[in-house]
Amino acid sequence: MTTTGSALGFSTLDQELDETELPCHGQLPEWLEGDLLRTGPARFEVGKASYKHWFDGLAMLHRFRFHHGRVVYTNRYLRSNAYREAGAAGTIRRPEFATTPRPTLLQALRLSSRPKSGDNGNVNTSRIADHIVALTETPHPVAFDPDSLATLDSEALQPSLPGQLTTAHPHFDARRRCQYNYLLEFGRVSRYRLYRIDVGSTDPQVVATIDTQRPAYMHSFGMSDRYLILTEFPLVTNPLSFLLRNRPFIRNYHWEPERGTRFHVIDKDTGKVVKTAQADAFFAFHHVNAFEQDGQLCVDLVAFPDASVVEDLYLDHLRSGAAITATGRLTRCTIDLAGEGPVTLRALAGASVELPRFDYRGCAGQAYRYVYAAGSSPGASFFDTLHKLDLESGATDTWSEAGCYPGEPVFVPAPGTRDEDNGVLLSLVLDATAGHSILVVLDASSFAELARIKVPHAVPFGFHGNFFSSPPG
Ligand code: CO
Q1: Rounded Cα distance, 158 and 139, in Å
Q2: Most buried pick, 33, 87, 215, 262, via CB within 10 A?
Q3: How far is ligand 1, taken at its centre, from the CA of residue 120, in Å?
C-alpha cells in the first residue's frame, strides 16, 4: 500500500545519501553560506517492534550545505546507543518518550536492571564548546561530525551534574557568553538545577536549584536578558511511579489543572528566585522569547488549553489522516515583577501555530516584533502552512501549497544588518503529492518564496534544526 498525504511524513526512511547536490529552482542569496543541520525521527520500527509516538523514532541527521549558490545534502542516522543496540538486538532496547522496550528475559526475572535511558537525539541540534551535538530530553548529548554526519565519541560531553531529564532547547546568552539549560533530578524531593555552560567549556555551573514534590513535564523554558523563566505546567508526575511500574515515560505524567501553571523567575547573575507567580492551567512545549517592559516580564509561548496535544501525536492517530490539534496560540504571559498583580495571558495572533522561531541573534531576551512558525488550517491532518506573525500590527503572512506539509522555519539573518526580518527562512516541507520533500527558502521580510530545493526522498517530519554559518560563529 502506498502511503499518501501527511501520513507519508511518519514513514521510515532507510536511504542515506552522501554529498548529493540538489537541484535548486529560484535564486539563493549570495550571502547564504553554511549548514542547515536538522534532526528528527526517521525509523519507526525495529524488527517486529514499533515506536508508538512521533517523539520516539530513531534520530536521523540531515545537512543542507549552502556554498556558492549550490546546495549539497547528506543524511545519516545518528549512531546513538539507542540505534546501535536496537540494530544489534533486532528490537527496541532503550525506552523513549512513549515507548518502553519489552523486558529481556533477565530483566523480566529481575536478574538484570531496567533498560538504560536513551540518547536518541531526535529533537534538536546545538553546540557545546567545539562540538556539534544532537539533543533529546535525556541529558546525553551525542556529538557528530558536521561534514560526514558520522557519530563521534561523546563521553566528554556527559554532564557532571546529577539528573535524568533536561531540554533540547538550551538558551544562548551572547552578552554573558554562555548557554543555559536545566536538569531535573528525580527523588523523594525532586530538584530542578538551572545551570550555565560558558562558551568554550563543557562544564556546567549551577545557577539555581528549585525543589519540587511533583515535577512538571517542561520541553523548554524562557529567557530574558536578566532572567530564566521555568514554567511548571500542571502535567506532573510522582517520581515513585517510575520505580513501581514499567510504563512508558510520558504515561507517568498526569494532567492536574487545579494546580494551575507556575512561573519561577530566576535572576541569572545571583541565582535568586525573584518571583514565583501563578496562572490558570495551560500547557506548552515551546517558549519563544521573553523580555522586560515597564516593570513587567513578558514571556511568550505557544499555549494549548491542556496537554491533550500529547495524545494527538501518537503515530496511529497521525497516520490516520484525521484532523489534529498540534498547534496552539502564540500567547504573551505578563508577570508583574514589581507588584503582586496576577499573571495575565493574551493571545498575540489569530493563527494557530507551532515550532516558533524568531531572530534569536538580534532579539533574544529583548523586545521583538516578528515570530515565524508552522501552522495548521482548520481540519488539517498536520502542519500545512507557514506564518510570519507581526506582533506590532497583528498582521499575518502565510505560505501554503496544496499537498504540502511544512516543518519549522529556521530564520537565517542576512549579515551586516540588525533588521529582525532581514534574512531568509528555511523550511523542510513534505510535498506529499510529489512523494518527496523540498527545502523552501522564503524572504523573511516579504514572505515571498525565493527558491525551492528538491530532496530526493520524503524526509519524515522532524522537530528542530539550526543554521551553522561558515566560518563557524
Ligand atoms: Co521543541
Answers
A1: 7
A2: 215
A3: 14
